[in-house]
Design a protein that fits this description.
Elements lengths: L10 E7 L5 E3 L5 E11 L3 E6 L9 E3 L2 E4 L8 E8 L6 E9 L1 E10 L15 E10 L4 E7 L2 E2 L6 E5 L8 E6 L8 E9 L7 E7 L16 H8 L1
Parallel strand pairs: 2-8
Antiparallel strand pairs: 1-3, 3-6, 4-7, 5-6, 7-8, 9-10, 10-14, 11-12, 11-15, 13-14, 15-16
């Protein structure tokens, strides 16, 4: 004899991601995203989708696991696991992958000796500003050097980091009451706390020709070097 058991029990799908959100990684790392079903009858089918329209060509999907080998900045974005079993609405869980990056370092001087008539002079205040694009921005750190030696903020040399909502990725070095002893090469160094990304260093030369009053302290022979960095 054969006994058949019939049931009309169905349930919409439910899932869980076994990853953090967001996931912050260095370029070149392999990232694995794991999605598991926690409910659904009949058993749901799992698929992965990306905010980048399609999954990276090198990605591998096995069951509920999505593997992204040697990830790049172009592959950063939102990745979603979708479960469907034709009962109710599909279940969807998402996580954001952030790939660390530093790029587009630039600086400017206030007052600007090359774009304004206002010269930099002894006894005046000079501000050197340094800006980079950082991902993620909250990991960005700055340090300043003078002639290769670390600078610390003081009453006459004030180091500040601009409000990220106003001018993201920007630090300023204010030199109060400029003196001859302040001439030299100032270096702004940008880094990410998470590490694994090369630092960005930007050099700014401030100098003067002795005996020429009202001469811009950033000499003309430095202009080519500074313009390269500025652009």
């Amino acid at each position: 004899s054969v006994i058949f058991g019939l049931t009309n029990k169905t349930a919409s799908p439910s899932i869980k991601l076994l990853v953090e959100d967001p996931i912050v990684v260095n370029p070149g790392q392999t990232v694995s995203l794991v999605c598991i079903t926690t409910g659904g009858e009949p058993p749901p089918i799992l698929t992965w989708v990306s905010s980048n329209d399609s999954l990276p060509q090198r990605s591998v999907v096995k069951g509920g696991t999505l593997t992204l080998p040697a990830i790049t900045s172009d592959e950063a974005g939102v990745y979603s696991c979708v479960a469907s079993n034709n009962v109710g609405n599909p279940a969807k869980k998402s996580t954001t992958i952030v790939v660390r990056a530093l790029k587009k370092g630039r600086f400017w001087i206030t007052p600007d000796p090359y774009h304004n008539d206002d010269n930099i002079q002894i006894g005046r205040e000079v501000k050197i500003s340094c800006q980079v694009e950082a991902t993620p921005p909250e990991e960005l750190t700055f340090s300043w050097l003078k002639n290769g030696r670390a600078l610390r903020s003081s009453e006459r040399m004030v180091i500040t980091q601009t409000d990220p909502d106003i001018s993201p990725g920007t630090t300023n070095l204010d030199i109060i009451d400029l003196k001859f002893t302040d001439f030299g090469t100032y270096t702004c160094v940008a880094a990410l706390k998470g590490g694994g990304i090369p630092e960005i260093s930007i050099d700014v030369n401030i100098s003067s020709t002795t005996g020429e009053p009202h001469t811009p302290l950033c000499q003309r022979h430095n202009k080519h070097h500074i313009s390269q960095l500025y652009n």
